[in-house]
Structures
1.
Amino acid sequence: MKYKEGRIGIQEGIAVTATALCINGVFSIDPEYAYSKGNSTYLSLPLSALLSLCLFLLVAAAMKHRGADSLEGLMRGSLGGVLSKVFAIPLMLALIIGGIVPIIQFVELLHGIVYSNSGYMEILAFIIPIIVIIAWQGTETIGRVAKCYVWLMLAMLVIVVASSAPTYETYRLYPILGDGAAHFASFTASQTFSFLPPLTALLITCRSMHGVEHAQRIGLSAGLVAALVCGLTQLSISFVYTYQTLADSFMPLYKINFLNLAESHFLRFDKLFAMVWLNGAIISSAFSLYAASLLYAGSFSQKDVNPSIAALSSITLGIILTALNMAPEKEKEIRYLFTRYGALLAAVPLAVTAIISLIKKKKETQPNEISH
Amino acid sequence: MNIKSSIRGLFQFDEAKAEYELLEREQGSPEKLGGWRDIRAQEPPADEAIPNGIDAVEKRLRELFRVDINRDIILRRFSIGERRLCLLAYMNGMAADNRINDFILRPLMQAKLPKNENIDIAYLSLNVLQISEINIKSDLTSVKLGVMDGLTALFIDGDSCCAMLETHGFEKRAVSNTENEKVVRGPKEGFTESLRTNITLVRRIIHSDDLVVETRLTGGDNNTRLAIIYRHGITNQTLVDEVKQRLAGINIRTIISSGALEQLIEDNSWAPIPQTLSTERPDRACSHIMQGCVGVIVEGSPFALIMPITFSTLMNSPEDVYIRRPLGTVLRVVRYVGALISVMLPGFFLAMALYHQGLMSTEVLSTVIASREMVFEPIATELILLLLVFQMIREAGIRVPGGIGQAIGIIGGLILGQAAVTANLASSVVLIVVALSGLGNFCIPDYSTQIAASYLRLALVIAAWMGGLIGITAATMLAVCCLAGMKSFGVPFLAPFAPKTYTKRPAILRGALGMHLRGDDYLNTYDDTLKKEKRR
Amino acid sequence: MKSVIKSIIAALLLMSIMLITACLNPVSLDNYGYVISIGVDEGKEKKYYVTMALQRASLAQGNENDGGAIFLAAEGDNLFDAINTIEGHISYDLHFSRTQFFMFSRKIAESGAMEEFLSLSYNETRIRESALVLITEQTVTEYLGGLSANNSANISKFQTSLLRDQSRTGAVILTNVAAFFEACAERRFDVCAPLGVYIDEIITDMAQKTDESEGENPLAEVETGDHVGGLKSITSGVAMFDGWTMTGVLDAVETQYLHMIRGGFVAGTFTFETDDGAQIVIMLELGDTEQSMRRDTLYSDEITADIRLTLNASILQKGEMNELEAAEWLNSAGMEQIRQRLLDVVAKCKEANSDAMQIGRLASMCFTSVSEWQEYDWKSRFKNVNVVFDIKIIIDDKQSTENLR
């Protein structure tokens, strides 16, 4: 089997998973949904991450219970051949969309602010080939590239958050918790759509992480880091902008320093910071793309992951271009659908698989569910 | 393998190719052999037995060495104690005449041999010949190779064996200072072209009984010798086997130096960055061999190849360990900063100048604009041309003999640069950017890595020209992806950083000296016990 | 055949590189003029008169004519109209990413036209939201001209001098475009912008410049009382806003008190008059501040906010009083004077309907629900605000003890 899985250590696993979780958590928010009724994202995002972690741990427990070495092995063992293929499709869709949403955000940012005289395709020409090349190389390369960039991204985030500290005001947090518990709960639940795809990708690439035990440890560490980072980032943004400004803004983290009165070289580096975070979005997207391809190859018994990567890359490019060139009203409708109900794409298959695996009795003579 | 089949190979369903992995954690137990490299396609010729009788031997040797047209080969007939005919075969210039005269011919010709003794090669080796090293061979292939190497072959009438006598005496360069790896505080000796001398230099530093030197021939038709040096019982045996396997798989007409050998045995010969360390310093080579690396020295090349290596190996200088820890740390940080500036500065400057002018302060903007007021070329071509001129000055400085070489640097740097600015062919700010970048390049200790950094710098400049910061981001990420995917004899190139391997020795900063004496985890040596340090 | 395929692929690659090379439209930095300040006045024939100050290119060791500013100005019905007119007459494009100041004349600010300029500017021209906003008492053209003094090669350093003034004297309160957006979108508070004044009587730097004038007295023609040196344009006091419209002015001293109320005051010098007519000069430094709103008064006719100020005082000049007398005066009559001045500033803000004191922030912190806060409509209730000041003055003991010794 030519799956290019290789083996990566715990630090690389945490780097790639945490990068994907943080990028998705910070840059995949729909501002209108998140902020128009007040701002409590600094609480709801970490809770959302923890909720996703719970589902992840449930599935991991099911995998250990059944002795499966990867998610698609678990699905085949507990759901059977046909149903596992059926459930694989929404998972793949969740992975692809989860990976491309930050890319779309960054392309729109670059098109609007940095390269305003260029079209979307010209900007994508620099991004998509890199995603495909990294995904093509397999888990080892993805993990090591993530390890190389993770500290830089964290440092940039800390610099941005720290340099905007002079403009922090507590009154901007008020009214705290926005408009009641119902909205808070629904937003928290729907935001699991940002965190579930990377955790799902981790379950799919379990073999590369030296088994479920290590993958569980990686997921837990990465999830906690992501909860902390997303919470602190959102708190920082909330100290700088009120909910009314945020509801109309696009990627507020990019212009978090604009309220700063002192003019210094540091505060002019917003484009540079955006490029560093773009690296994270590329890594996250490559990880999701590779995981989706691996899931497809495993579920449909392909011997080689290359054709899947090639096909899904083309589909990804098509989806991105469609999203970027769509009419604003149509785009708003689709965004509404995904931000509110997109979490179900990943959550339902994972939950159903886990529950059935735990309930279903394993026959004593049945071998462990090794996928291939 | 043509392009069509390469492209088809990317997309077709296929089994995974077996790859050699050294790290246990990567693939479980490391696999022994690659399995996909071809063993040498050319079968070695069958061994030819030594003919019986001196006349037949002499006739065969004349044919073999083309003595009628090849006057270098000397065939000397003589008799021992007026009883047995003998023949000496040696190469003029390769074998030492005085050794042949004093320790072979004279003792044999003046020997008083007992009458009832069977006089054969074995008897002569034990009782008559006064040579330090004697090997008994029974095939003409070994004789041929030995004579061409500087040994003397002794045949005796009626004996089907031959004695190969150690008589090396060719002219060679004396041990001198290293040309390219100069240090302020540390040994100054460098390798020479003689394999024996180089092995001696290694043995003078490593007085260890587990040091093994295996000599063999390279795969070329010129039959150059090489030595594989490692610590038996410490160095991972699969690594040694892999090195031997790759050396055995060489099938090429000529190998003159270690540079060619390096490209034939490394994992990715297309990559600009080397995956073996090429060093002319015995101390540096020994340092790596002691940790568990394998060294390969080729006859005729004053460079030793060390494998496996990582990126930090290429960036470290031997002097780091010879000076005090804080100074070593500062030097290393300066080196990395210099390398970063060398690679990133021109591209970054171009990106800001073409796409992101807002990143520059008003003062810098106004200075750059004023300096470029009458310069006719666009800033991108100006930068690329200046980078090219810098490379030309560098190449000229290497090629031009001795004293003039230094003057070239001064002429190029000062006069040309100043004249170019005055003539509005270049702007002063761009010139400074190129100069800083060039200086940073020289901070990189390894020559091949310096060249690779120059290529990467140019690629980043082109990427910045095409897309500004996003071009640089894409190109940098591609470079990191290539480095992350590369392996050097089964060791990931970015170890111990990515993947994280257990090591108490920092990769960039210079750690305490005790840490430098332990083997690196990624070498998977058999010596896993850590010696406790005495507390002061 | 192999070499043909390779050549074709190489040619395709080269062509694609050449096509992609120009696709992001690079423009070299020397094809731009970098606008440092934009100013808007009333126009004569068209609606607005837009003036721009660009940084002149300057070499490191250039002559004295290097640097300084280039001024471009044109009329237009809106900003883009003016920009198009200006760009039609110059050989380079205008670049606004280095714009540090957005200046409006008082007339424009009072007409409420600022919204039109500031709302468009960021999206279309890429002027950063961190650009400072400044209101000029006279025309912007005069003010900008007064900023470009002799020997000032780098006009972009003006911004750092304003920041120093804000922290050293407190007589200037800076604001930027982002703060305007925040204030006007949310109506939690109002902004105030620094007020610029052009004083023609100031005699600018009288340096010896030429060989012919060497040895001459550069102050020969200066009379006693003339203000010599520096720029003709100064910044003193603030303009208060109600949303996008300017509704009032505070002078430099009132600005210092406003700054204290807002909690951003660092240090400054104040002059007081005793009942005897003596002058007493005090350096005040703001220590701890505490601001809170009385929740039970939120819906009443007198919405009350409590502001506790701790001021560290150093007596610089005390007339004929000794240390102890001066300290006693400060803790009684002096404190009252400070309180009165603070209340005067509050009254002025209320008169201008400008919550430049930012009391609305405190009100917003009393609400737990967005809908309740949005229904509350703070600005409509602003006139009912009452501020109660609790002032504590800590006099620099070390100085007074030493003098007593």
Note: The radius of gyration of chain A is 20 Å.
2.
Amino acid sequence: MLSLNDIRPGGRVRIRRHLSTGAVRQRLLDLGLMPNAVVTVVRSAPLNDPIELKLDASNVSLRRREARTIEVSPLEADAAEPDHV
Amino acid sequence: MSEPRSEQPHRKDVQVALAGQQNAGKSTLFNVLTGARQHVANYPGVTVDKKHGQYSDDLGTVYTVDLPGTYSLTSFSLEERVAREFLLGERPDVTVNVVDASNLRRSLHLTLQLLELELPLVLALNMMDVAASRGIQVDKDLLARRLGLAVVTTVGRKGEGREALRQAIRGVEDGATATERPHPAAVVRYGALEPAIEQLMARFATEPRLSDLPRRWLALQLLQGDTAAVQLLAERLGDDAARPLRETAGRFIDAFETAAGIEVSDHVVSCRDQAVERLLKGAVQGAGNGRPSLTERIDRFVLNRWAAPFFLVATVFAIYQVSIVWGYEITTYTWPLLAKARELIAGLLPGADFLVDPYTRSLGLWLVDSANTLLNYVPIFLILFAAIAIIEDSGYMARIAFILDKILHRFGLHGQSTLPLILGGVFAGGCAVPGVMATKGIPDTRARMATIFTVPFMNCLAKVPLYTLLLGIFFVEHKSLMLFYISTMTIVFALLVAKLLTKTVLRGQETSPFVMELPHYHLPTVTGVLRRSFERTWQYIKKVGTVVLAVAVVVFALLHLPGLSAERKAHYEAEAQAAVERFAAALEGNTYRDVALGGNLVPLVRYFTDYKRAKLNATGAAGSARVTERFQARNADFYPLVKPPAGDRDARKAWRELRKLARARQGLRKDMREERIRTSLLGTIGRGLEPVTQLAGFDWKINIALLSSFAARESSVATLGVLFQQDEDQNATLEERMGAETRAGGATALLAVSMILFFALYPPCLATTIMVKVQTGSYQWMLFAIVFPTLLGLGVASAVYSIGTAVGATGIQAMSAVYWGAVALLLVVGLVSDRQASRRLRARLAET
């Protein structure tokens, strides 16, 4: 199963489910990372961790450690041009 | 609320709470709403700021509370618990929900939760300008109808929408009874969970002790297993009555989760999300038009893998240059003002006596000096806090956390530890007090604690004078290398200590993930920046000022008590008497004899000393002329004795004798002071510590200086100044005096290194420890913040001094060895912990 951590910058995915629990899960949901939401991986930080995601109207960053707990399925490359780093 | 609320019928005071998500501009709108009348306090028992303000309208006073920014109202984070408890406990008359109009999809989740709390609500669509610039149009009337709420559009940054918001607040308040329950359309339906909710609500309805709580909300919380709600139930009903309710809820949860295959809380969030989608359908146009926003375009440069470190270093350098370097330059203009104030107060206090000054004078001046060293930093802090407010408001602070999180996290800190460390003075110049204060924003408890304990290792402004002093004496040749070591070892030590603490005493502390919004860039507003800068500087003055003054009194007492024995006092008095008699004898037959002797003697000596100091401090010929004028006016009779007119032989002789007398007085005073300090309580402690501190090479004088620096770092140099006091005529700097004396006493550059290391690791000053108490909420941690660094500092200093002495290392060799050793250790620790972490993570994921 693909996790958000495996997605390279520019990739668009649909969130399938969270493996995290409790406060982490709540935080992810609060920031809009809901099941079925579509997110774009924008970039990794200069030292590769954390990563930046683009959601509907906001940008969120999270560590790869948390990204690994989010199962995603990739979407076809969209008309919107991906951000290259 | 603590404010009195008037009960007069024709005027009606109301209480309003502002709730909203982070980055929605809630605080800005709060400022717009209330203006300057604000007050910051803490919520009872926790370290979350409670900001309240008030304004008046035609109907009365509106007391306004700014709740902490929260994404939702669960009980997972402290801020959310605080906000929720306030809303439930205080039931404000009106709650204003501030939402980011450009991100309604996420914001309305909180709105729906607020509605479930059955609070009279006003929706403020803030940042309408940002929404417009992104091509987002909001049909606020449609939204208002669907939600059954008053909806107001605002632009907090520009102060737009204030009157409309104020009117809406009164509007809701008037119709409060009608809108007590949320509009049916805005009630979220939870599908398969509804029967469970209904049944629990029915059970609550029979229980009068729950009558004031929103029943639907309570049922929903129980079904989500919310710990705070379970606790609330137990508090209200007692354990026995609460248990069956809890068990019923538990059965519902099991039944639901087996049937639906997902957790209740996930189901709740997804139902809310669908509700939000329905609410927004047709009410919002143009969201996400695909064109990269300005923020995205800026971030392509600012967060670019190669450019990011460059921008970061440039930013930190700019802060340093503007606040510390230029700020210091400003203090050269403000310091004379403070010095003038000291002179003014010195003039009001009782005058100095020949030998012993009255306590009111010495204590008064001691306090003024303590306050002045503190106030001297005010310009620097104003600029520093303004610079940091700009970085915060612009949105770059979150990016700094994003860039640095990897490194900081590896050592147990957090990306958001950056701001506290910068405030504490990563490279040079800062203050641990605002640094520790700023740890408030770090969401991860363990990282927050680690940050609190490492901020004091930064180079606060008050450490700098001691470093400068020691470098000036011992490291004239290696000054720049030593400066490099000193200004970068802070972060090396801080990271190592953070790692050590995280692995040991902080092991059991809660951690939370780094999940953070990267807000859109905003241009900071002048008023917003100035307000924050003044607010924080004022907090610094208030909190630090009171503590430092109180401690200054204690240190003063410790330095003065028990005082000299009657016998020693008599000895010094006899010596003084002898000097005066010699003076009198020398002036026999002199025309100025009557002017100089008798009751005039003490004022004359004082006049002489004042004159010399004034001349020394006067700048340029014009300044010197002004001094002449002032002293001629002060006492025309005395003047010929401090500045004999040409050809007046009597005056010349009297002047010479007077100089001798003044010098004798100064010498006696110095001896007395030294003896008094040596026999004082602090001196006794300092000498008592010698057996331990001699390992680090510290004698009692240095011990006293370091002990008194606990009150405030500045006083270390001041105390050393007193201990190595100069004779009147000698105009040597403290560097020269201390250098001469300590070298004569066998002190070496190695001792200086030992002192520098000890000072770098030494416990935070008292004001900081008070702040540690405030931020950790515990006296035990405060004690830890004192004891741990003391032992660490003493250990390191002793090791370096003892080993250095044994192998005959020079100061610069010892310092280089320590520095590069620490850097090597840092690299090893960093690499090892990285490998461990990834191994653990792989193992954990393999399990799932």
Note: Chain B has a mean pLDDT of 83.
